[in-house]
Write a structure and sequence with these properties.
globular; 6 strands; about 200 residues; six-stranded parallel sheet; alpha/beta
């Protein structure tokens, strides 16, 4: 039996997908929101964690590290993604995701991905290929992307520093690096460029 934890903030989508996956005789599936994810991982100890990359939380990027149990019970991470968000694809790769399912595709692809990961293999939908190419071209690091995501939500330097446990000076240094790397004139321009490229 494959233990699966489905993490999705949209309650209706999560319920429908969870019920659909439960029809498979070889899966035992639980669903939860991102806010519940860390606790549910500890309780369920999933073999595979299927997590949607869209997150309604306040920190811009989903806390993918929270959905992988520690030590020998580490869950294999499969993410639900789209090709037009290369920044999230890169974040997921850096967080250790080994499965990538296109959210625009068939639910059968999700089922196939879960089974492949449970067998110790990788799974990547071909339709996400362009997104991975764009992700490889992205100049921003994961930390810079976290800073910029919060800035795009209107957070001040002090709020970003508090959220990411950084000093104010470090946040300013990150913003200066982001502005330089994106070829932007200022913080607002960096956000516009990054959103246009799908990095945010």
């Amino acid at each position: 039996m494959i233990r699966v934890l489905l993490v999705h903030d949209a309650s209706l989508v999560r319920s429908v997908l969870t019920d659909w996956l439960r029809r498979a005789p070889d899966l035992r599936v639980e669903g939860c929101s991102w806010d519940e994810a860390a606790a549910r991982v500890a309780a369920v100890r999933p073999d595979v964690c299927a997590a949607d990359l869209e997150w309604s939380g306040a920190h811009g990027l989903p806390p993918l590290g929270d959905v992988r149990a520690r030590g020998r019970d580490r869950a294999r991470l499969l993410v639900l993604a789209t090709a037009n968000r290369p920044g999230l694809l890169r974040h997921a790769m850096e967080a250790g995701a080994v499965g990538f399912v296109d959210k625009e595709g068939s639910p059968d692809r999700l089922l196939r991905g879960i089974r492949r990961l449970a067998e110790g293999e990788r799974f990547v939908d071909d339709s996400l290929g362009f997104g991975f190419l764009k992700a490889a071209e992205m100049p921003l690091t994961r930390r810079e992307l976290s800073v910029l995501s919060l800035a795009a939500e209107g957070a001040s330097v002090a709020e970003i520093a508090g959220s990411l446990h950084l000093s104010h000076g470090t946040v300013r240094n990150y913003m200066a690096a982001i502005t330089r790397k994106t070829g932007a004139r200022n913080r607002i321009d960096a956000i516009r460029i990054s959103q246009g490229q799908g990095w945010l």
